[in-house]
Design goal:
heterodimer; A: Rossmann fold; Rossmann fold; 2 domains; B: about 475 residues; alpha/beta; Fumarate Reductase Iron-sulfur Protein, Chain B, domain 2; 3 domains; binds iron/sulfur cluster
């Protein structure tokens, strides 16, 4: 099986370690990965802002670039949902590439049937359900199964695990006051767990949460699920 | 002049900064959540009930013309009257005319968002007709001079102490912290109004095509008094309120109360089948139904968003919405708040003026998951955004930015140059001021020197 890496633009630029961690885990599981270097952005910012023509151009581009891969894996529930759930609406049809794009945790558990990747991460963590992973891809248990099998980890659920962190792409800059209030609600819930780390499938949510944590000088750290799974 | 968008931003900033306000509504919603979670357990299969309800509504809305005419025929056969109001103005004018015709001096009203939508109270008062809201929550809104804060829970934002203070200030009643006493204060006043009112105005939760009946759910008995004591009853019914058959209530009543309050069924469930008949001891002499369009047929014509007319106004999507929970109901500035309001308001009212509401969402999808009639709420917010761009309601600057952005993203070389520039600007700290809306309250990450692509070129390939 030839697995293509879909590294969303903001992961490429801001959080390359997340992509690297995903590669580490996949290689540990002997998955043959390749990275189409001409990839850029899936078009979600345009799509979500209403610029569907612009997004459509990038959707077609994505399908071309990734055609032929047996599976396409991405460390982002949000960009995966963009491709798998929204490209068909934009393009008027599903393609081989849209149908075979998976979020990383989803790929491990549902496609590879792996729930223990041999990771070790001795810390108290809480898991944040990224909205698109949870409600567009319906991934609730998969990331948690993977986390529970990490050696030394203590997973504590927060009361608002499913509540949106308030990122929402351009929403976070169009309506910063609302976005910030939502961030506050999220972090308050995280704090109550006494966790050292908040883990999520989506680095965009973690960027939002981390932005609040750092500004308030709170000791909690954010870490992507991929990085936890890569740790040994 | 302040635009609707500026007003929204102003109010949202004020409300999100008001921690007491946020605490009050979050507590109210937590109580609601617990009740609804228990309520759903009463259904053998909640998801299936939702699908079934959605299918019935789908059928109804797609053949609305037929069901409306069937409903009208049956209302007439029962001795009632039907008026088709295309606009809010038509509806108001008709009610005023009825009031004049019957020499109405006083109107009692039960809770109805449709009457809020057409600003009926102001019109009645302007015509010199004394108008009294009889639902406790609406009564409190009325004496405070505020619109309802929530389509189901009009004073969700007020604590018992706030209500006591309102009564003290506006009605001159003695201070109390007892909910019973507060209720008794309102009740004593309202009973007098019921007995002396000439016209009762209600909304409708459902309009039943095959019997020509109007169904009303409530918990205080005030709606029942409003339509049974006065001489004339007027029910204002949005055309989307139709259900085909009497037996559909067996699903829709518990579905509405289950999602609205978590109750198995509301304390009072009434069916109105026409005016008082011979040998009946009570009931109005005349029964009028006003079927209100007021923009709904625009939604009906939109095959993509037609399912927004499934709405039974249960309020569940508001309570699930993290935006609503932080800005509250008044900030929206609309009759219908929260996700459903942001979906339908641009259709029902001026599309450009209200085009910001669909953007005031993180698209988290919590609303869609709770909607008992499976309206695809958060995807319709996306559709509304696309419509706004297609109608050129976007700013020219934003349009330009997305064009430039597309050009960059289409070319790996341009992407590489642009990302290197952005990377440098962020690491030197010169880009942060441009990100002011973000950086005013949150830190923005400093990008590492090496992108994933760089890493791959150096280490990844074939390794
Ligand atoms: S859209 Fe759905 S959840 Fe929201 S008020 Fe209407 S029926 Fe209830």
């Amino acid at each position: 099986m030839r697995v293509a890496l879909f590294i969303p633009c903001f992961i490429d630029q801001l959080f390359p370690n997340v992509g690297i961690a995903m590669v580490t885990v996949l290689r540990r599981l002997n998955v043959d990965v390749y990275y189409p270097e001409e990839q850029t952005c899936c078009g979600q910012p345009a799509f979500n802002t209403g610029y569907w023509d612009e997004a459509r151009t990038l959707a077609a581009r994505y399908c071309e670039i990734f055609t032929g891969a047996d599976a396409i894996v991405s460390p982002s529930g949000s960009c995966t949902a963009m491709v798998r759930n929204f490209y068909p609406e934009l393009l008027g049809k599903a393609t081989q590439a849209t149908a075979h794009t998976y979020e990383f945790a989803e790929f491990l558990v549902k496609k590879l049937g792996v729930t223990d990747v041999g990771a070790k991460f001795p810390a108290r963590v809480t898991y944040h359900d990224a909205c698109h992973a949870l409600r567009e891809l319906r991934l609730k248990d998969e990331p948690r199964q993977l986390l529970r099998n990490v050696k030394g980890i203590e997973l504590v659920e927060m009361d608002q695990a499913e509540t949106c962190c308030g990122f929402g792409g351009t929403f976070s800059v169009k309506f910063p006051m609302i976005s910030y209030a939502m961030d506050e609600v999220k972090v308050t819930s995280i704090q109550k767990t006494g966790a050292q780390y908040v883990v999520s499938t989506d680095s965009s949510c973690l960027m939002q949460i981390d932005g609040y944590l750092r500004r308030q000088n709170l000791p909690i750290k954010t870490i992507s699920l991929a990085e936890v799974l890569a740790a040994t | 002049m302040t635009t609707t968008l500026e007003q929204f931003k102003h109010d949202a900033a004020e409300k999100t900064a008001d921690l007491r306000h946020r605490a009050v509504i979050q507590k109210a919603i937590a109580t609601y959540d617990a009740a609804v979670a228990r309520g759903r357990l009463r259904f053998a299969d909640w998801q299936n009930a939702r699908s079934h309800a959605a299918a019935i509504k789908w059928e109804t809305i797609n053949h609305l013309d037929r069901y409306l005419e069937q409903f009208e025929r049956n209302v007439l056969a029962n001795g009632g009257h039907v008026f088709w109001a295309e606009t809010a103005e038509d509806a108001r004018a008709h009610i005023l005319q009825l009031a004049r015709q019957h020499g109405v001096e006083k109107v009692v009203k039960s809770k109805s968002m449709t009457t809020e939508e057409i600003h009926l109270n102001d019109a009645l008062e302007a015509a010199g007709i004394h108008t009294v809201e009889t639902d406790l929550g609406e009564y409190i809104c009325q004496i405070r001079g505020e619109p309802p804060y929530h389509i189901v829970t009009p004073v969700m934002h007020l604590t018992k102490a706030d209500i006591a203070r309102t009564f003290q200030e506006k009605l001159g009643t003695p201070p109390t912290d007892s909910a019973e006493e507060l209720t008794m204060i309102a009740r004593a006043r309202l009973r007098q109004e019921f007995l002396t009112a000439d016209m009762g105005i209600t909304g409708a939760n459902f309009a039943i095509a095959d019997t020509g009946m109007v169904a009303i759910t409530e918990n205080e008995g005030n709606a029942r008094l409003s339509f049974s004591l006065p001489r004339v009853h007027v029910a204002i019914v949005g055309i989307e309120k139709l259900i085909p058959r009497f037996e559909d209530l067996a699903l829709f009543w518990p579905l509405l109360s289950g999602s609205g309050t978590g109750q198995a069924i509301t304390a009072y469930s009434s069916l109105i089948g026409g005016p008082r008949q011979e040998r009946e001891a009570d009931g109005p002499r005349e029964f009028h139904v006003i079927l209100l369009d007021n923009g709904r047929t625009r939604l009906l014509a939109d095959s993509e968003q037609r399912d927004a007319l499934h709405c039974i106004r249960c309020g569940a999507c508001l309570n699930a919405c993290p935006i609503y929970k932080n800005v509250g109901g008044h900030a929206y500035g609309t009759t219908y708040q929260g996700p459903i309001g942001s979906v339908i308001t641009p259709h029902l009212r001026d599309a450009e003026e209200w085009s910001h509401l669909p953007y005031a969402s993180s698209l988290c999808g919590a609303c869609t998951d709770v909607c008992p009639v499976r309206i695809d709420l958060h995807h319709h917010l996306l559709h509304n955004r696309r419509n706004a761009v297609q109608s050129k309601f976007d700013s020219p600057l934003q349009r330009l930015l997305f064009r430039a952005w597309l050009a960059t993203m289409q070319s790996p070389a341009a992407y590489s140059v642009a990302s290197r520039l952005a990377n440098l600007a962020l690491r030197l700290g010169v880009a942060q001021p441009l990100l002011k809306p973000w950086t005013a309250t949150r830190d923005f990450p400093t990008p590492p020197k090496q992108s994933f692509k760089d890493y791959w070129r150096q280490h990844g390939r074939g390794a």
